[in-house]
Amino acid sequence: MNRIQKALGQNKKLLSLYFTAGYPAINDTMSILTQLQDSGVDMVEIGLPFSDPLADGPTIQASSTAALHNGMTTALLFEQLKDVRETIHIPLILMGYFNPMLQYGVEKFCAKCQEIGIDGIIMPDLPLAEYEADYKAIFEKHGLINVFLITPQTSDERIQQIDAASDGFIYMVSSASTTGAQSGFSNSTSDYFERIASMHLKSEQIVGFGISNEETFKAATKHQKGAIIGSAFIKHITENGTNSVAEFVKTIR
Amino acid sequence: MKETSIDSRLRGNENESYQANERGYYGDFGGAFIPEMLYPNVEELRSQYIQIMQEPSFQEEFKQLLKDYVGRPTPLYYAARFSKKYGTKIYLKREDLCHTGAHKVNNTIGQILMAKRLGKNRIIAETGAGQHGVATATVCALMGLECIVYMGAIDIERQAPNVARMKMLSATVRPAMSGSRTLKDATNEAIRDWINNPVDTHYIIGSVVGPHPYPDMVARFQSVISEETKKQLLEKEGRENPDYVVACVGGGSNAAGLYYHYLDEPEVGIIAVEAAGKGIDSGESAATSALGREGIIHGSKTLLMQTEDGQITEPYSISAGLDYPGVGPMHAHLFRSGRGEFISVNDADAMTAGLELSKLEGIIPAIETSHALAIFETRKFKKDDVVVINLSGRGDKDLNTFIEYFNL
Ligand SMILES: Cc1ncc(COP(=O)(O)O)c(C=O)c1O
Question: Which one-letter DSSP state was computed for residue B5?
Fold first, then answer.
């Protein structure tokens, strides 16, 4: 069983954090991962920076630009992670955009992930149809779980298709927006959380985008299995330095 | 004569055609690589665009506006002095005479009618040179719809007259501050806006780029250019088909419009002219076919300029409208298949050609268009070849650049 599936099987709500590899400094990757694990975080999304992150708001855009400026590349990230499984045991997901993966070579990328011990991939701009037609077999061969997104606008029919195609969890985008921290959720967001829960999908759902504090974490995990925090965490380490990871996690739960 | 209007032209055998197939692929290029957040919007458009375009009421309104508002058909003008200088027969398809000064308005008229039929009341667009922004602001004023145009901060400076025009037309111009602060970044911002406003907003893309169905839809709206050219050339030369069609390629919409009805006519040579900037090997260029590799930009698999690591690089051209690191998937396919001949022209040669056309023909072209005019210095044609160039826009917006460049 893949580490993601194991984590989803636990009888608790999952807290997952996103950070951009190569930010704030090029060699922060292992230090941030270690602190996240030590703080009791259940899962991590490691962001592979991209020059044109269409689905991201200002905070993650800025961290991506800085990371690229620092010299982060796909090859360098793999190099930094080569011994990650000697110390890190929580599930690791690579999140990025499809073009860098395509240039590295999808087969080679997936093989490298397997070698390192990466459990899953989130590529927002690799849609279901393209994935199934051309890449699914490669991901599966290397034991990688591909995570699909849904939004409040996604039709029930498409949610069913995505559920059927998912082996791990469904990434529920909290509202129609790019990434970015919000202080609270609207009524319609709560309705959406409830609506999806009542569909009784086979896949667990984890909510992302707009989670920033204890309140939004609680609201997001009322009906869903877990929540992912990105922009608020990046803001925190930007303001408080890379050694302040535990401090941030404590404010969430 | 063959009936060639957008409504009647059905797709031919995919394998023999240079048109998009049903999944929006031109050969290996195209598709829709979009985040799930955009899926409902793009799917709504994809599932309806052909049907809407084929409705008689749509056709009627589209044609009426092109005629009475845009001023179509635009003339096909035999440029006698320019032809004499280069020893071949050169016709100019006068898109510069369209209302707002460029071909861009053909597409925005079509898309605003589409947006209305889809029930959208808020319009967003990206713009480079400002021509597409002006053309979008114009049709929004015409229809009384809210209009927001994203424009790179650098382009806002170098295309100031167009920024003022958009404001007069009551559009909001929002500067794109990320990346190279030019067209690519303005497009990113427009896409992010669409993600944040998925219900009431239509995104009017300005070229044959972006996810399917945009490249095909924009090409169909622009195809009026070659539809007219066929008729006009028949009158003037006794044949519908020239020996060559020539256009500059930024994203490739004016080129797609001129090529459209000639794509599957093998005797017509297709020439695409890209901006070499300060030279292909200078590191400051926008010549995608020479410098690009297959990749994904703005939701489309196409040729694009990028690093080995897959980061999209920042292009450069003196002309804001050609300053884009990719090309539309139609053009990527024309390049890879060998159907199209790709030539790149640097800043200096384009500027010289623009000045030359002004002097020889009394027509001041846009700097984008000037790139296409510059090929005759190096690309030789036979004396009785008939060459049609798309005169995609007029140079008013570029006066400051011309003044500075030539110390006028
Ligand atoms: C006059 C003119 N020609 C050409 C272009 C390039 O666009 P496309 O390649 O889509 O025709 C522009 C873009 O702004 C333009 O204003």
Answer: -
Q: Specify if B178 maps to a domain.
A: yes
Q: Are A56 and A29 in contact (CB under 8 A)?
A: no
What is the pLDDT averaged over residues B380-396? Answer: 97
Positive or negative, the CA dihedral A212, A215, A220, A224 is positive
* Residues of B whose CB is below 8 A from A158: 39
Mean pLDDT of A79-98: 98
User: How many angstroms separate the CA atoms of B22 and B116, rounded?
Assistant: 24
The pLDDT tens digits of the residues spanning B336-380 come to 999 999 999 999 999 999 999 999 999 999 999 999 999 999 999
Residues 6+ apart with CB under 8 A from B284: B277, B278, B316
Taking CA atoms, what residue in B is nearest to A155? B40
Cα dihedral value B219, B222, B223, B229, nearest 10: -150
| Residue range B140-168, pLDDT digits in tens | 999 999 999 999 998 898 788 999 999 99
**Confidence bin at B16 (pLDDT 50/70/90):** low
Tell me whether residue B224 is exposed, middle or buried, using C-beta atoms within 10 angstroms of its C-beta: 0 to 12, 13 to 18, 19 or more: buried
Instruction: Record the tokens describing residue B225, joined without a space.
Output: 């250019």
Pair (B347, B396) in one structural domain: yes
- B149-158 in b/e form (b: 16+ CB < 10 A) is bbbbebbbeb
DSSP three-state, residue B16: helix
Which amino acid does the sequence have at A97?
Y
Structure-token pair, residue B358: 């002004």
Helical residues (DSSP H) of B34-124, grouped into ranges: 39-54, 56-65, 80-86, 104-117
Q: Which residues form the domain of B131?
A: 35-67+104-217
Residue B55: phi, psi to the nearest 5? -65, 135
Locate the DSSP E strands across chain A.
14-20, 43-47, 92-95, 120-122, 145-146, 149-150, 169-173, 204-208, 226-229
* List of domains in chain A: 3-147+221-250 (3.20.20.70)
Q: Is residue B298 part of a domain?
A: yes
**A130 interfaces chain B, CB cutoff of 8 Å:** yes
Nearest by CB to residue A103, choosing from B178, B184, B310, is B310
Same-domain status, B95 and B228 = yes
From CA A209, how far away is CA A227, in angstroms rounded? Answer: 9
Same domain, B302 and B322: yes
Q: Which positions in chain B touch A125 (Cβ < 8 Å)?
A: 33-35, 296, 299
Cβ neighbors of A208 (< 8 A, separation 6 or more) are A16, A18, A171, A172, A173, A174, A179, A227, A228, A229, A230
pTM of the model: 0.95
Chain centre to alpha carbon of residue A149: 10
Token pair 């640097």 is at which residue?
B346
Cross-chain Cβ contact B178/A177 below 8 Å: no
ipTM of the complex: 0.95
Torsion from C-alpha of A61, A63, A68, A72, nearest 10 degrees: -130
Strands B172-176 and B146-152: parallel
